Amino acid sequence: MALILPAQPVAFNAWPDVNPGQKPIRSWVICQKKLVPRVSKGGIVYSDQTREDEMFGMTGARVVAIGPLAFKDANTGAELPGAPWYKVGDFVRIPVTGLRQWKVKTEDHGEVIFVLMQDVHVQAMDLVEEAEYLEKWAPK
Predict the structure, then answer these.
(1) Domain extents for the chain?
(2) Structural domain 28-137, CATH architecture
(3) Which of 14, 25, 98, 112 is most deeply buried (CB count within 10 A of its CB)?
(4) pLDDT of 29-69, one tens digit each?
(5) Beta strands 60-66 and 28-33, pairing class
(6) Taking the model in full, what pTM does it have?
């Protein structure tokens, strides 16, 4: 049985600025997964397990750090065609499985999930998520 509360009066930032506690090397990339709110827009309170399941199954992420050899040929060090494909701050789609994931506990936002992957594992740019974020959170 779900607990129902009044709708959230304050806008929810799904992408809080949190230090991942790690720095990528070589061609590795660190992304932050989208944070799931504790309460839905309609006032339903999500359990911690529901929020965790939702976050681990999500493919939306924001790039927070890129290693120095990302987007480069491993043998020659030359930049790959079309590179860089994305930059820090971009919203991307990533695989659900096969990634190293860890949590960073925060007072304000609970647990924030980060993932470590090779630069070529980012699957797509997420322009809709980026537009929604900029509309709500970018300085005016």
Answers:
(1) 28-137
(2) Roll (2.30)
(3) 112
(4) 999 988 877 777 778 888 878 777 776 667 888 999 999 99
(5) antiparallel
(6) 0.78
